[in-house]
Amino acid sequence: MQAVRAVIVALAIAGSAQAQLSIEITGGGADQIPIAIVPFAGEAALQPGVTEVIEADLARSGRFRTLYTGPQNPPLNEATNVDLAGWRGRTADALVVGGVYPAPGGRYEVRFRLYDVPKQVSLGGLAYTITPAQARATAHRIADFIYEKLTGDRGVFSTRIAYVVKAGSRFQLQIADADGANPQTAIQSNEPIISPTWAPDGTRLAYVSFEAKKPVVYVHSLATGKRQATASFRGSNSAPAWSPDSKQLAVALSREGGTQLFLVNADGSNLRRLTSSPSIDTEPQFSPDGQWIYFTSDRGGSPQIYRVSTGGGAGERVTFSGDYNVTPRLSPDGKTLVLVTRNAGRFYVAAMDLATRQTQVLTDGGRDESPSFAPNGKMILYAANDGGRGVLAATSSDGRVRQRLSVKAADVREPAWGPFPGN
Amino acid sequence: MRKILLVATMTTVLAACQSTPEAEKPAGVEDRKPTATTPGGPSTGAVKPSTIGGDPLKDPSSVLSKRTIYFEFDRDDIKAEFIPVVEAHGKYLRDNRKAKMLIQGNADERGSREYNLALGQRRSDAIKKRLIVLGVTEVQIESVSLGEEKPACVDHDEGCWYKNRRGDMLYGGEF
Fold first, then answer.
1. Is there a smaller number of Cβ atoms within 10 Å at the N or the C end of chain B?
2. Do residues A54 and A165 both lie within one domain?
3. Minimal C-alpha gap between A413 and chain B (Å)
4. Among A215, A234, A283, whose Cβ lies nearest the Cβ of B112?
5. CA–CA dist B52, A366 (Å, integer)
6. pLDDT bracket for residue A412 (50, 70, 90)
7. How many Cβ atoms from other residues are within 10 Å of residue A325's Cβ?
8. Are β-strands A237-242 and A204-209 bridged in parallel, bridged antiparallel, or unpaired?
9. Planar angle of CA A164, A167, A169, nearest 5 degrees
10. How far apart are CA B13 and CA B27, in angstroms?
11. A260 interfaces chain B, CB cutoff of 8 Å
């Protein structure tokens, strides 16, 4: 045991750079907004420049088509009186202009303005005073501003994702920006780590580690690297899911025989049993309003999605078509249920409209699993397989746009999209 | 000189901690197996000779050296061919009340990791139930699951999947 413990290294999130996720966009949506982002004046002072990060963010969302503009002559910036009528002829519906200016103390000021070209109006702009190290984060915030103004939905470019990298016999739980940049290792182990999930407050992750030669649920504080075994009972402890208030977890435990659902406070106190069935009940997931727990059960003969009130009681069945529907994940608005379905021995991510019960298969990988909603509900991150190697993929919630995120020479799996910052 | 020796000893101890000695592997099974590794590792590096007929758990000719039960797809019933193995361990645990066993259930790679964890649990529970029927006490056995996370075989075909749908019976000091 001692030897095993010794090779588990918990790190506060400040660790060294890791092999970065590289991103490839493999689809294209209709109704994309054509947007021109004029290279920010003076951005060569920053590394990376803000323009490329904003463009990559918007392109990755699948909702924009970025038009190449090149440097303008005379130069344009946020203070320029832009000839919007002229830009209309260049097929841009939206135009972004801005600049980077030296400020006292080695800082920089980044300013920009967004225009609606057809309406020939300004949609606003912002200014940030930053250190050079904040260039990328600032670009994500500008992309969030643009995305929200033009689509009406909140952007997720400033969020983070968690995932597990398996390299050889080593498992790393990593946290990266939503674009794969700045990967950092939260914990490293020579035993598997699965099922990471973000506390809605964004400060902690819960996950399952096998370092004790059996599954144990941990809660891990990202700022301090401190962690606590929240469910470490006799038997198996797995499938953690946070309540919307980040105060409690639903977990699957075998301590009383079989695999059944329990609720437990995040500090491990106040354990109580939620389901009582002679079947498998696992993969709990709170509804966003905290009223229901959706879960996977084979009580009807095949694994299907059910839901039970957080107060307990009998569960009700949610999925009926097919003989394998697992891993329920609810959209942030609670209206869509995403799940993994099996068809002819292959596995796909599908979305079910809870009001109409219509189901749409979103992916085509065949070994797709572990879906996780972006906090704005517009994208779903999931685990896929590429020639025997685990990769992450993302699809728009209508299935039209996909991206693939991979790390060279390693297996990536178990993605979890984090909450909006500052929630 | 003294320093070098110390380093050499530390290396030996570390190696003893981290290596996975390969005792009685069933054919084709490549993963971690029941072994006589002492957690923490021996401090002297000395090898304790194993006498045939001494510890029946380590005697390759004893049925007790068999620790793995294989299962059919989506099943948790113990097949007839494995019943003598479970019964032998039941008798051993009954005769050695201080002996403790960890049963690790496993599943093949297909489908959800968490659902597969529950399927592996069902298999380890099935072995545990059989041992309890044989008179073993509850405190002697813990049944857990490793789901699809510790495959004995990594190809994507039924031959491999069969080897991964298994329960491993490990005694104290073997995991």
1. N
2. no
3. 11
4. A283
5. 50
6. very high
7. 24
8. unpaired
9. 100
10. 29
11. no
Pair (A66, A201) in one structural domain: no
Distance separating alpha carbons of residues B7 and A173, to the nearest angstrom:
32
Q: Is residue A25 part of a domain?
A: no
A288 shares its domain with A407: yes
Are A214 and A234 in the same domain? yes
* Domains present along chain B, CATH in parentheses: 2-171 (3.30.1330.60)
Cβ atoms B99, B172 nearer than 8 A: yes
- Per-residue pLDDT tens digits for B36-73: 333 433 344 556 555 455 788 988 889 999 999 999 99
CATH of the domain at A39: 3.40.50.10070
CA geometry: angle A114, A119, A123, nearest 5 deg: 25
On whether both A184 and A272 belong to a single domain, the answer is yes
H or E segment to which residue B2 belongs: helix B2-18
The separation between CA B109 and the C-alpha centre of its own chain, rounded to angstroms, equals 19
Is A296 within 8 Å of chain B by CB? yes
CA torsion, ordered A42, A45, A51, A52, to nearest 10 deg:
150
Is A352 domain-assigned?
yes
Chain B residues closer than 8 Å to A238 by CB? 114, 117, 147
Nearest to A3 among B41, B119, B150 (CB): B41
- The pLDDT tens digits of the residues spanning A145-194 come to 999 999 999 999 999 999 999 999 999 999 999 999 999 999 999 999 99
Residues A6 and A49 placed together within one structural domain of the fold? no
Q: What is the mean pLDDT of chain A?
A: 91
- Judging contacts by C-beta atoms under 8 Å, the chain B residues touching residue A369 are 111-113
In the Cβ-directed half-sphere of A246, how many Cα atoms lie within 13 Å?
14
Residue where one domain finishes, among candidates A130, A151, A172: A151
Segment A364-379, tens digit of pLDDT: 999 999 999 999 999 9
Q: Are residues A261 and A388 in the same domain?
A: yes
**pLDDT band at residue B31 under the 50/70/90 scheme:** very low
Work out the mean pLDDT of chain B and round it to a whole number.
Answer: 79
Q: Residue A295 domain-assigned?
A: yes
The model's pLDDT over A309-318, given as tens digits with 9 standing for 90+, comes to 999 998 999 9
Give B10-27 pLDDT, tens digit per residue: 333 333 334 333 333 333
Using CB atoms, pick whichever of A280, A327, A370 lies closest to residue B118: A280
Query: What distance in Å separates the CA atoms of residue B25 and residue B67, rounded to the nearest whole number?
Result: 10
What is the span of the domain harbouring residue A69?
Answer: 31-151
Indicate whether A418 pLDDT > 50: yes
The three-point CA angle B138-B144-B150 to 5° equals 150
The Cα–Cα gap between A203 and A40 comes to 33
Please count the structural domains in chain A.
2
Asked which of A151, A186, A202 is the last residue of a domain, the reply is: A151
Tens digits of per-residue pLDDT, A10-54? Answer: 444 444 445 677 766 655 566 889 999 999 999 999 999 999 999
Tell me the C-alpha distance between A115 and A146, whole Å.
Answer: 10
